[in-house]
Design brief:
Length: 195
């Protein structure tokens, strides 16, 4: 009987050990499964990144992925398209012509480059100028020192361009394309409001 108790005790011990061993094996198997899942996910992400890098054939894909783009920037002439100006070289020549005319003080020809009517300030009062003669008469009150300085210091290729036109300085002068008037490109805004 003592032998039976020893055998039963030993069997119970083995069973308990086996049960404990199975539990630890089960935990270890769970850890292995989690590690395998993590490793599998990481491997998939690496493959996806490698595939994405190899599939970047278009500039838009290159930009979207944050990689450098190998396509050249658009020509300078295209920078004016948002303002409706298709011929950048022609506009730049007209811009420089206006700068030269203002520099010389050629009031009559500068007046030809204005799109009428134009609203400006004369002696602190908001005034609508409707004709070239009216512009010439008030030239020095319209093209103030601040406006002339902004225009003369502006590099045409450094102008701000949007759908409203081409801006000089901090908005002192605005150019646009027009079918009206004597010139294809004209000034449609002069911001000479007193400070």
């Amino acid at each position: 009987m003592a032998n039976k108790k020893v055998i039963i005790g030993a069997a119970l011990g083995v069973l308990l050990a086996l049960q404990a061993g199975c539990s630890s094996t089960k935990v270890n198997n769970n850890k292995s499964a989690q590690q395998k899942t993590i490793e599998h996910t990481a491997s998939k992400q690496e493959d996806k990144q490698k595939g994405t890098a190899n599939e970047l054939n278009t500039p838009s894909q290159q930009v979207n992925s944050g990689q450098m783009q190998n396509t050249p920037p658009p020509p300078d002439n295209d920078r004016y398209k948002v303002a409706g100006i298709d011929n950048g070289s022609e506009f730049e020549a007209a811009f420089k012509q206006v700068q030269e005319l203002v520099s010389k003080g050629d009031k009559k020809v500068v007046a030809e480059y204005i799109r009428y009517p134009i609203t400006v300030y004369i002696d602190g009062t908001k005034t609508e100028i409707k004709t070239e003669d009216e512009f010439v008469k008030n030239y020095d009150k319209i093209l103030t020192g601040k406006v002339k300085t902004a225009l003369m210091n502006q590099k045409v290729k450094e102008t701000f361009v949007n759908y409203k036109g081409v801006m000089v300085g901090q908005g002192e002068v605005w150019f646009t394309i027009t079918e009206e008037g004597k010139h294809k490109y004209s000034i449609h805004g002069i911001n000479n409001q007193p400070d």
